[in-house]
Amino acid sequence: AEYMGENRKQEAYEEFLKDKLMIDEIVRKIYEEDQRELELKMESERETKRYVEEFKQKREEWKMMEKAKLEEENQKILEFAKMQQVREEDRMAGARKREAVKAKLVEEL
Fold this sequence. Notes:
The protein is 98% helix and 0% strand. The longest helix is centred in the middle third of the chain and has 107 residues, at 2-108. By secondary structure, it is mainly alpha-helical.
C-alpha cells in the first residue's frame, strides 16, 4: 500500500512537471511575442522618424533651390534693367550728338 502511495506521488510529480513545462513554454512564447511586438513598434517608430527627417531635409533642399532660383531671377531682372539704362543713355547721347551737329551746320550757314 505504501508503494502504491509512492507511485502515485511520483505520477503526480511527473504530471506537475509536465504542466510546469507547458506553462513555461506558454510564458516563453508570450514573452517572445511581446518582444517581437516591441521590436516591430520600435522599428516602426524609427521608420517614422527617418521619414520625418527625410521630409525635413527635402523641404530644406527645396527652400534653398527656390531661394537660388529667385536670386537668379532677380539678377537677370537687374541685368536687364541695367542694359535698358545703357541703351537709353546711348540713345540720348546719340540724339545730343545729332543736335550738336545740326547746330554746328546751322551756325555755318
